[in-house]
Each structure stands twice: as structure tokens, then as C-alpha cells.
Amino acid sequence: MSDANTPQGIAAQLSELSPGSAVSLQMSVDSYLEVMRGVLDIFARKKDMDTIYVTATISFEAIKRVLDALDIDTSRMYFVDCISHIMMGTTAAQKDEHASLVESPTMLENIMLKVEYLIRMSPSKNKLVVLDSINSLSIHNNNWILSEFLHILVSGLRAKDAYTIILSVEEHSTPEIVNLVNLVCDQVIRIGKPGD
Amino acid sequence: MMEPRTGDRVRCATGIDGLDTILYGGIPTDNTVILTGSCGTGKTSLALEFLIHGALNNENSLFISVTENSEKLLANIIPYRFFDKDLLKSGKLVFVDLPAMYDRLGMTKAELSMEEIDLLVASISSLVRELNTKRLVIDSITSVCYKLKTPEKIRDFVLKLSKALSDLRCTSILVSEVAPHSNAYSLFGVEEAIADGIMLMSNLERRGDLLRTLQVIKMRGTMHSRAKYVLDLTPVGVLLVPLLKGGSAGT
User: Fold this and answer.
1) I need a labelling partner for A156 at 20 to 30 A (CA). Which of B60, B97, B102, B219 fits?
2) What is the pLDDT of residues B66-111, one digit of tens each?
3) For A110-125, what is the mean pLDDT?
4) pLDDT score for B1
């Protein structure tokens, strides 16, 4: 595994960016855990940030289990769960004060509203917003509305000096998806498979 | 030299960030605004927030409730993180139930006469003067209009009330109820023609999702956005973001 693909390497690349930056983090399926550790553990802790994690891929409950298994501290993480409602499995998210539910990944405005709410609630000066993932959102939304959503979301977060990281899975991405993410991001970081 | 785009009117900042941005700084002071929408669109919450921010800003604020009693309303505003109970104790934020006022004035009949309309306007004005009210909400004006019955009486009432409140330098929101999917801004079709502003709150259905929206239709004395915004009612107040056009159902 090259240095850039390790959690430390990912965090180091992100640390070079100034507050308000938006990053397109393109990863292979196999790199997911390294990315989680690099972004949520090392980078967020180093910058003393509260993290708002928008999950459209797996439920809050599942992502929490992954993070607990990785022994990543989630006390400063707040989740916007866009998937539990459509899976009819909202119980865990409803009971946890760190989780906010959006009824469907098609309600992109409500995702923006929940992010805005959590930013206002966060006492931390520094904030990180992670969007996991653009591929999952693209299952439920057309590229036109996704592009508009990313533009408004990222512009708003930039104005608040919050870091935005948009995750995409290379194996599942189309050139259109890559283009619409890159259009709003300042930097593209590619995390390849071991040995790439 | 270019004229300032917002004009010279002094603003009554609602305290709701997104709405003040839409209104280029707030509602022009002394305006009477109709806040209209069907049930469950967030009218009362937005109106209450307007008053609480005013009271926090040292402006005496008055809520005249027609349909719900004050105690029930208060239970709804307590979750607001910015709400301070001392506003009630200090008299900065006052709740009055209109049915109690009707009783005091002896207005027991189902339909008010022209004289009674004058008396009602005079009573509300007197209360506003007495309390030195700078922000007023009547929730809802539709319920008052049910006691007026005819368009002539409604017109007379809204005109006189609006003038009286404006003369008292009070910025007012009159909450109006409309049926879901209605194209009108009020049930009787009269109030909106007289008001200085109309803010429309709706439920927008898009591919099975129901979004709460807000749109400023008119506002005398200021430039404003006429676009539709999606809102959320949260413990930090009303939050607004633009409606994404790519998914608009065209309604």
C-alpha cells in the first residue's frame, strides 16, 4: 500500500487544505475503511472538528457499528441518515441524539436543512461535512438536480469555512458523476487499491 | 450615484435568517403582511418566531390568538432554544385570546355588525397602543373573517385594522388559512388585496415527498425574492434553503 493510501496519508493530504475547501475523495471499494480512519479519526481529530456525516449508503446504525469496530470516537460526530426511513428501520436513529433522519435520499433540500441545523447546533469552531456517497445519491436523483444540490450545499459550507468531503466509489462512478463532483470541488484525491 | 437597492424603508428584521435575506433585510416597518397557507405548513411557528425575535430585540410583541388558547401555543414554543420565559414575565411578549375579547366587548352574535367591526378595530388598536406593541400577530385573520361574513365587511375590517396598526408604527402579520391546493391567498379573496405583503407557505408534493415551502408573493416597500424556498421547523427556528429546480413538479 502506498503511503498516500494509508489513513495517515489520506489525513496528510487533507490537512494541506484550507478551511472551506471541498474535496472529491474518489476511492475504491476496498479502501473504505482506510478512508474512514483517515478522514473521521485522524483528520477530524487533528483539526479539532465536529463532523457531520451524511449517509445515503448504509444506515446510521450500520455506519455506527463500523466506526465502533474501528474504535473511532464518535462523540463529536453527527449523522444525517437518508436511508433508514426508506428501509423502514428508523428506530436506532430516532433514539440517538446524534442522528437526524431525512425521509428519503430524494429530499435533497432536507439534507441541506439538516446539515445547516447541525452546523448551527455545533459548538465547535471547525466543522467537517462528509457526504457518503454521491453514487448512492445518484441512484435516487438525476444528475441535473444532484449538480444543483452539490453547488448550493458546497457554496454554503464554503461560506461557513466548513470542510466538505464528497465520497465516491470509483467502481460505481460514471464520467458524468465524476464531472459534477469535480465541478464543485477544489481538489480531487484518489485512493486506489493496495498496490495501485 | 446608484440608488440603494433596498430603498430607504426601515426594516423590521424577522430574525429568521433565510427570510430576512429573501426580504433584503426584513419586513418594511409598519407593513401589514398576510402569512397564508394550508394547515401544517408552519404558519404559526414562523409567526411566533417573528415575535420572539422581536421581544428578544426589546420590541414589545403581541400575539392575538383566535383559534388556539395561549397555554397550548406556549407549550409549542418552549422547545425553541432561543425562547426565554422571562419575555413573558417582563411583558415583552404578550398573548391575548380574542374569544375572551369578544366576550368582554359583548360580541356574542355569529355575525358582527359594522359598528362592532369598528369597536373590534378600536379595541385591538387600543391594546397595541397601551402595550406599545411593535410587532403583532393575529392567528388567524380567517377565523375573524368568519364572523364578518360579507366581502364588504372583511374589506372594511382589514383596511381599518391595517391603517390603525400602521399609524401606531406596528409591523403586523395576519395569519390566513387556505384550503390545500387552493390558488387563492385567502379564503374570502379580499384580505390579500389590501395587505402590504403576502407570504405563502405550502406543502409541495414531489415524487411522493412532501416538502414545506415558503414564497414571498408581494411586499410593498422592498425588493424581494419571489422564488420558492424549502423550510424546516427546528429548535433553532425556521431554516430555509432554495427549492431545487431540477426536481420541481412545476407547481
Assistant:
1) B219
2) 988 888 888 877 688 999 999 999 999 999 999 988 988 898 888 9
3) 96
4) 45
The pLDDT of B32-55, averaged and rounded, is: 95
Amino acid at A54: V
Picking from B12, B15, B23, B24, the residue whose alpha carbon sits closest to that of residue B48 is B15
Check which CATH number belongs to the domain holding A68 and give it.
3.40.50.300
Which residues from chain B sit within 8 angstroms of residue A117, using beta carbons?
Answer: 232, 234, 236, 239
- Report the complex ipTM: 0.91
Subunit contact B246:A112, Cβ cutoff 8 A: no
CA distance B201 to B240: 12
Summarised one tens digit per residue, pLDDT across range B161-216 is 999 999 999 999 999 999 888 888 888 888 888 899 999 999 999 888 999 999 99
Alpha-carbon distance B2 to A191, whole Å? 52
Cell numbers that stand for A16 in this block? 494541506
Report the mean per-residue pLDDT for chain B.
91
Q: Is the pLDDT of residue A2 over 70?
A: no
Name the DSSP letter for residue A194: T
Contact A113 B231 (CB under 8 A): yes
The residue among B205, B209, B229 with the most chain A CBs within 10 A of its CB, best to mutate, is B209
Q: Which residues contact B116 (CB under 8 A, 6 or more apart)?
A: B105, B107
Q: Report all structural domains of chain B as residue ranges with CATH numbers, in order of start.
A: 25-243 (3.40.50.300)
Cell of A187: 481538489
**What distance in Å separates the CA atoms of residue B120 and residue A72, rounded to the nearest whole number?**
64
Q: Let me know if residue A171 belongs to a domain.
A: no
| Amino acid at position B73, single letter | L
The angle subtended at Cα B163 by Cα B158 and Cα B169, nearest 5°, is 125
Q: Interface of chain A against chain B, CB under 8 Å?
A: 103-104, 106-110, 112-114, 116-117, 120-121, 141-142, 144-149, 152
Structural domain including A40 reads: 3-124+133-159+179-191
Mutation test of the interface with chain A: which of B82, B213, B241, choosing the one with the most A Cβ atoms within 10 A?
B241
Tell whether B40 lies on the interface with A, counting CB pairs under 8 A.
Answer: no
